Amino acid sequence: MQKNKIDPSEIKLTLIEMAPTLMNMLDRKDADKGEKYLIRHGVEILKNTSVVSIGDDSIDFKDGSKFSTSTLIWTAGIKAPDQVNKFGLQQGRGGRILVNKQGQSLDDEKIYVLGDVSLTDEDGSGKGQPQTVQGAEAGSKVAAKNIALAISGQKTTAEFEGKYSGFVVSIGSKYAVAHLGKNTHLSGFFAQAVKHMINFMYFFQITNAYYFLRYLRHEFFNTRNERNMFHGYISRQGNVLWSLPARLFLGATWLVDVSQKISGKGSWFANKLRLTSFDWLVANTTSGASAAGSDATSSTATTAKATFSLSYEYGNQPMLIFKHMPKWYYNITKFMIPNTDVAFFMQKAMTIFELLIGLALVFGLFTWLASAASVAFVAIFSLSSMFYWTNIWMIPMAIAAMNGAGRIFGLDKYIIPWIREHFVNWWYGKEKSIYK
Predict the structure, then answer these.
(1) Where are the transmembrane segments (predicted)?
(2) How large is the average pLDDT for residues 78-97?
């Protein structure tokens, strides 16, 4: 409204309903919640009101009164298209084609009818199955099985059985009401969450990661005017230029750290154990150590007591995040790295990965993956009793760099669009009009 210089007070929304109630597929209590939400947000509701004609700037009601309006949005429910009348097949309520429980037309068993245009009279009331996704999915499964049976010359035995888990009515992008199963009633945030979970399930069923990610972006992260279930808290738009220093500094930190592991006395490529917190390996390499040496080590270790701090302080020893490995992680690590040969290989592999992470962040290449790998590595080092609280900043720094920081003075600006274009076209095909 601000963009078009429109004063919100000049706009009035009026909902006109012919029936005496709204949202009749819901429990009355749930529907009333939805109605109150509309009223609370300034929507005028006219129930038991029939429209008989529409003019250029007004509509006429059945009782003879007029309603002035400059914008009319007409919603008349679901009806079979007029083209269906030309098929010569029996039709029921709303022009829907009558089908049996096998999904076949009552006039020709070779014709299968699916979705909203079909009517399966399950209970004999003539209303047919609800025109919802669940009804369409149930009908499509039955038709697919019976078509396969018919092709192979077998009798079509699969029958339609409608299973309806409930209904969710979304009122805008921040509010919804839901009636699930027999006794579950939700409203507000949790009802909206159910709506999104249903959509997530749909993407998983069709195994389409591309459109799933697009859905996340459009419904949660790139919404305007706070129009998402989190009221805009996760969709703030900002200049990713400010995250460039975070990306470069994090990458430089990894490179500085790994430089000491590539060469020199502390090289992780030498066949010398660096994973000193892995006591089952250390025991094998130091079995000949004397008790005197052990005592000396203990004495030295106690000279500087570790102090919790998120920054380095003179005279204080930084504190490990985990002084000892958690039992579950200890068992997993001991299973995966049972001897020094495997340990030497892992030391070299981790060094190479560290180097790649640092280079990727500095050059802005696959920044999101490199940042996620940074979080994973910090977690691994922490659980392995090899990481200090003073370096825990690397996790929030990596998360901050996941906001597209690689597109600012980075290779992601060129690589990611190229991959997206070519991979999507290769995997899903190129979208084009079907009209000639």
Answers:
(1) 355-381, 387-410
(2) 88
Sheet hosting strand 66-68, strand order edge to edge:
51-54, 58-61, 66-68
* Rounded Cα–Cα distance for residues 378 and 388 (Å): 10
Q: Catalogue all structural domains in the chain, each as residue range(s) with its CATH number.
A: 8-68 (3.50.50.60), 82-151 (3.50.50.60), 174-221 (no CATH), 240-286+304-417 (no CATH)
Task: Report, in angstroms and rounded to the nearest whole number, the Rg of the chain calculated over CA atoms.
Answer: 32
Q: Name the band, by pLDDT with cuts 50, 70 and 90, for residue 289.
A: very low
Tell me the C-alpha distance between 308 and 319, whole Å. 5
Alpha helical stretches, state H, 286-366: 291-301, 327-336, 340-363
The mean per-residue pLDDT over the stretch 259-285 comes to 79
Contact in structure between 367 and 247 (CB atoms under 8 Å): yes
> How far is CA 364 from its chain centroid?
25
Residue 363 in 3-state DSSP? helix
Is residue 250 within 8 A of residue 374, CB to CB? The reply is yes
pTM for this one? 0.65
Nearest to 94 by CA among 109, 108, 82, 102: 82
Please name every residue paired with 97 in a beta bridge, in sequence order, or none if there are none.
Answer: 91, 118
Residue 204 has which token pair?
A: 């998983």
Helices (H), 124-274: 133-151, 189-205, 209-216, 244-262
Beta carbons of 405 and 367 less than 8 angstroms apart: yes
pLDDT digits (tens, 9 = 90+) for 219-236: 988 888 888 888 877 776
Q: Beta strand pairing status for 184-187 and 175-180?
A: antiparallel
Nearest to 377 by CA among 257, 284, 264: 257
